[in-house]
Amino acid sequence: MPVITTPQEFDVDDLFVDVRRVTGYPLYLKCEGFNFAGSVKLRAANEMVESAERAGALRPGMTIVESSSGNLGVALSLVAVSRGYRFVCVTDSRCTQASRRLMQRFGADVRVVSRPHPERGLLGARLDLVRRLCEEHDDFHWLNQYANDGNWTAHYQSTAPQIAKAFPDLDILFVGAGTTGTLMGCARYFREHHPAVTIVAVDAVGSVNFGGEPSPRLIPGLGTSVRPAILDASVVDDVVIVPEQDTVRACRALLREGFLLGGSTGTVLSGAVRWLREHRPDGDLTAVAIAPDLGERYLDTVYDDGWVDESFGPDALTGEPFTPPPAPAGPAGGPTSAAPGSRPSPPHPQPAPHHSADPARVGPTTTGSL
């Protein structure tokens, strides 16, 4: 029987959901929401705080300040109150009301930015406010998840080894790209220990992480309007870019099977299925996708028909997000086994844009810049 003294000690790390019945492909979701923070961000939050303490940058009586669209803010609120720190979260209007209320119940001071920076969007405006707060208060410490090595080492040390242990024959790993901490930690681990595994990043339309054109995004979580300093595209094999309408459809497809998962999970799942449909329609592989969070915080957005209709139009509420791969037809039109190495291509709608994560295309990571 587990007995804990702090909330961050509890984190279910070995739960995988087989979503083949939903998607038609051999794909497993690593569910990261079963902890007291409700998302994968608890690991990064705890590691960044502990690293700052070890370095002497964070001391008793100080205030932690961080920019977050929701999940990291909730995780840091939990870690801060359990370790005796005050916490200021700078977020923006996309942060769900549920996440704001959770942070406030943990004692956080939540500052909401509503006016985007003309070039760097809402994230740029958030970062400007964080810098201003640190200039005004000597006892504020900015963890800076966008450039903090603790953001990715947390997943190098835990998330990636857990996946490798559960799936020693893993072929493909799909990871969402927000601040890219989870992506970088997992990609670096597999590059060093299991280089045959293909790492596919999943990002949102409107994000600049992999050289895309910036545009407004409504669902918090994946994507950024300022490229994170910790992102190194050279350890990523491919990238899938997902429209937010497909995020909604994927979330609701899971809900119809009884799985209430978050917006980031819907984006990752949609991207994974699109990539598999185009590149591995034979389905002869083992694939894992990381599901970053649960769905309760999205009840007023992704799972609200009125919000979806107003935000994306009625088409986002209709249509099936996944087309299962058809069985190969034999000479008489009946099903048969595909020949070794053959990859029949099922009919499907035009996939979401994707491209190889060529560092020459997206530009090298500039350490220390934001």
Biggest beta-sheet profile: 7 strands, mixed
Rg calc: 20 Å
- Terminal CA distance reads 44 Å
Please trace the helix and strand order, writing H or E for each element: EHEHEHEHEHEHEHEEHHEHEH
Mean pLDDT: 86
Structural class: alpha/beta
Q: What is the share of helical residues?
A: 25-40%
What's a concise summary of this model?
The protein is of the alpha/beta class. The protein has helices at residues 20-23, 41-55, 71-83, 97-105, 121-136, 149-166, 181-193, 244-255, 263-279, 305-312, 359-362, and strands spanning 16-18, 27-31, 63-67, 86-92, 109-113, 140-142, 172-176, 198-204, 238-242, 287-291, 354-355.
Give an account of the 3D structure.
The chain is of the alpha/beta class and 370 residues long. 35% of the residues lie in helices and 14% in strands. It is built from eleven helices and eleven strands. The protein has helices at residues 20-23, 41-55, 71-83, 97-105, 121-136, 149-166, 181-193, 244-255, 263-279, 305-312, 359-362, and strands at 16-18, 27-31, 63-67, 86-92, 109-113, 140-142, 172-176, 198-204, 238-242, 287-291, 354-355. It has a seven-stranded mixed sheet with strand order 1-2-10-7-8-9-11, sandwiched between helices. A four-stranded parallel sheet has the order 5-4-3-6, sandwiched between helices. Strand 3 (63-67), helix 3 (71-83) and strand 4 form a beta-alpha-beta unit. Helix 3 packs parallel to helix 4 and helix 6 (149-166) packs across helix 7 (181-193). Residues 326-370 have low confidence and may be disordered.
